[in-house]
């Protein structure tokens, strides 16, 4: 398991596409260390690892299939209106291949 | 005349009797918003609300529709077509949703009048009401402006508590409506996960997010549940179970109700006044025939409720918010490369707290950590939920103080860390109802130095009628309802 060292934390932040300053890194280090301590508390509960992971709050049975018809569609103009740069109906970002 | 400090039914009565019109109500709300000093609002519907009210004032009052013509506020993480919505995040400033959330659409359909979008902790992640891009939202009950109202639904709580709207919509992923309700003498209700559609609610943590709301009494809560609950095909997690007539069912008594007080949580409350007031209420309920027992879940299990919640919610939040890149919507930044642009947008757009949450969530999902952190938290979730399910099979509901203190002070009381391994059990236990998806309601219990504190009641899945019935009896015992700070 990854420990709470600065390199790990900074790497994770950069993978998430943001930077984190030195002061924040210190708080994050403490917070992650607390999480790892909390994990130890969980581990100390007998047989916890024999349980099945629980994703949703209760068992859900979904048998809903909608009809195969177009419904509730956002039109192109609406979908693009919040993008900062649009040309010819497409969102513009910096060139990837230059 | 101050109509908006009344409850929904009282205002409805005044509309029927032609004492007041929707336009009068809107003008009263806007005047109060102008004078408000609690920093509760993101967007005010100045022109839009007046237009709706003018149109409604030409119609007859719908006597069977108590929400008709009455202003409400809604948290700024619900999509509202053509109305700016930023979830109090710098990154989303200027975003205008192209569609309505289901909850909002249902209220508009009832001809309720939206008056404001309200502040929240950034992206609904936080419990202090201080991490949004507009800063702290204050508690109307504290005139010194030094205490929080709690979060993340801080603006919705403040607008209802200050008498600006008789009800307001929020969301509750850990306790984001039920805790602020405790700090502001309101009823805060989170129905069963799946009972109300979440279509158009900005996702924080899909397996824990609930639509929730504030009212000033239990009856108004039952009314809103009748309007908002029910299957919505746009939210595949919404339930197809029948929507009950909560208002009439709430009055059916099935005594003696059997309630459980969880010892390991109750014992963690150190405030004597809160404990004494709670004990007094318990005794009064016993006199009414209630059977109330103390049940232990074990200190170790009570201790991991918060960490389990924190790990799961952070992991889900990391993934759910990966779409915040400033490209399709949100604040964009100039840059030479796509990667540099994303980096700038997210570095400058997210607050430090949000970044920390995302890093922790991301680390818990890494292949080398997943078994140890994320999956262990999911196993802990099962243990917690199995334990509470068992209790709720034996008892009609669990009853506890909703918070171990009155509204905390800002300043030193805002912890730098969002997660603290030594955090109080009684201050963080409400998340068990999110882990289990149970209906859970907070209502006023008492006052300490003129600051309110609440009681929380939680029951089994889809037993809202019973829960509201118990809550109504608690309300009769405490005699605390329709409270507004003036």
List the helices and strands and how they pair.
The complex is a heterodimer of chains A (98) and B (486).
Chain A: H1 6-15, H2 22-43, H3 76-80, E1 86-87, E2 90-91
Chain B: H1 8-16, H2 22-35, E1 41-44, H3 46-57, E2 71-75, H4 102-109, E3 113-118, H5 154-161, E4 168-172, H6 178-183, E5 187-190, E6 210-215, H7 218-228, H8 246-249, E7 258-262, H9 263-266, H10 272-287, E8 291-295, H11 299-320, H12 338-349, H13 352-365, H14 367-370, H15 374-394, E9 397-401, H16 425-428, H17 432-435, E10 440-448, E11 451-458, H18 464-478
Parallel strand pairs in B: 2-3, 2-4, 7-8, 7-9
Antiparallel strand pairs in B: 1-3, 4-6, 5-6, 5-10, 9-11, 10-11
Short description:
With 98 residues, chain A is mainly alpha-helical. Chain A has helices at 6-15, 22-43, 76-80; strands at residues 86-87, 90-91. In chain A, strand 1 and strand 2 form a beta hairpin.
Describe this structure as you would to a colleague.
- The complex is a heterodimer of chains A (98) and B (486).
- Chain A is 38% helix and 4% strand.
- In chain A, strand 1 and strand 2 form a beta hairpin.
- Chain A has 98 residues and is mainly alpha-helical.
- In chain B, helix 7 packs antiparallel against helix 18 and helix 11 packs across helix 15.
- Chain B has a single domain, classed as Amidase signature (AS) domain (Amidase signature (AS) enzymes).
- Chain B has an eleven-stranded mixed beta sheet with strand order 1-3-2-4-6-5-10-11-9-7-8.
- Chain B has 18 helices and eleven strands.
- Chain B is α/β, with parallel strands linked by helices and 486 residues long.
- Chain B is globular and about 70 Å long.
- Classes of the chains: A mainly alpha (98), B alpha/beta (486).
- At the A-B interface, helix 1 and helix 2 of A face helix 11, helix 12, helix 13 and helix 15 of B.
